[in-house]
Amino acid sequence: TVALIKTLANQSVLAMSNAKLFEQVQEKNKQLAIANEHKSLFFANMSHELRTPLNAVLGYTELMQDGIYGDIPERAKQVLARVQTNGAHLLSLINDVLDISKIEAGELSLSLGDYSLRAVIETVVNATGSLAQAKGLRISTDITPDLPVGHGDERRLTQVLLNIISNAIKFTDKGGVMIRARASGGDFKMAVEDTGPGIAPEDQARIFEAFHQVDSTITKQKGGTGLGLSISKRFVEMHGGTISLTSALGEGSTFRVQIPVRVDRQMEAA
Ligand code: ADP
């Protein structure tokens, strides 16, 4: 009996200390979540504050380029073009940081409406055409003619496709990029296939994480933030969809996006 009482007493002490430990862990987690939220809000505010003056810089640069302030010498025109390119790059970095912080703070919501997936793809192909042409790459599309009207966030879906297609162009040096789209079983199914360097198996899951870039000379040469795919993944998930990758080194990569044709309610991103 004494042994039994001792065991029971030990067990209850253990249970008590377990409960205390559990409470402490919960408290720590709560503190971490609050700190994380503060961090996201800080980034969101800061990015917003950075955007305003940068937009002014870009606006004045454009006015100068347009000759509003008089004729500009040739050398100065080249410098202005550089200011413009670098400023635009900085703006897109700031926008990426703003998006990811807003998503993490749970402050980004989709703006749902009707859209044409064909028009979205055409917009992106037009926007990236000159980049592909400059590299001698062929962009082809294979879009089934009977695509239904979609319902979702057109701007965010354009952003997702723009990111995947411009990555495909950015990392591919010869060959081309094939974009396919069809609808089946209530979903849009899209694939962007390139003939680029491919992505090693160990990097394939990680490139969807924020700031992760494949550690290679090619990636370093091309610049970028490593944010595009993680933002894209969140947007696709907010549409209740999935994004996936199949790739083989030396052969190329295929990114696939599947989203419901009609999205009536925003899903939580993982
Ligand atoms: P960024 O392009 O700004 O670096 P992303 O999140 O869009 O950021 O991509 C993350 C990384 O994934 C890239 O830096 C690159 O290493 C790799 N990657 C993405 N798309 C491709 C592709 N089509 N071919 C080869 N590597 C790619």
TrEMBL record:
Localization per record: Cell membrane
Ranges where the Histidine kinase domain occurs: 45-263
The protein's name in its UniProt record: histidine kinase
Organism: Methylovirgula ligni
